[in-house]
Design a protein that fits this description.
This protein is mainly alpha-helical. The protein has a single domain, classed as EF-hand (Recoverin, domain 1, Orthogonal Bundle). The chain is built from 5 helices and 4 strands; from the N terminus they run H-H-E-H-E-E-H-E-H. The strands form 2 sheets. The chain has a two-stranded antiparallel sheet. Helix 3 crosses helix 4. The chain is elongated and about 35 Å long. Bound molecules: calcium ion (CA) (2 copies).
Length: about 110
């Protein structure tokens, strides 16, 4: 499942180390503009990667739609469940919101 998140992260522009670009990166997720990224904002933004890869728009990534052209099919629900788990790992302060530092921390 960690592989899925890794794939999702690879589809995003790399977060640069500079503070300015970190907050610019956060703003892409932060649709309500409150300065932090909620779970639903995180899942919504990261789900764009799924939509980009789902070339036949059936809500499932089949092997030929996955990077490398192989692997088990991935449904949107599975994808979003893994994003929610990733969100909880990133949310080090457990306040339900990611600041720029939490958002750009390496996954793990
Ligand atoms: Ca927000
Ligand atoms: Ca598909």
């Amino acid at each position: 499942m960690r592989r899925l998140v890794w794939i999702a992260l690879c589809l995003l522009p790399l977060a640069a180390a500079a503070q300015d670009s970190r907050s610019a990166y956060l703003r892409q997720f932060d649709t309500d503009g409150n300065g932090c990224v909620s779970e639903s904002e995180y899942v919504a933004y990261m789900s764009r990667g799924f939509a980009q890869m789902d070339r036949n728009h059936d809500g499932v990534l089949e092997a030929d739609e996955l990077p490398g052209g192989r692997g088990r099919p991935v449904t949107l629900k599975t994808w979003q469940d893994s994003l929610r788990r990733q969100f909880r790992r990133l949310d080090r302060r457990h306040d339900g919101c990611l600041d720029a530092q939490e958002l750009t921390a390496p996954p793990g």
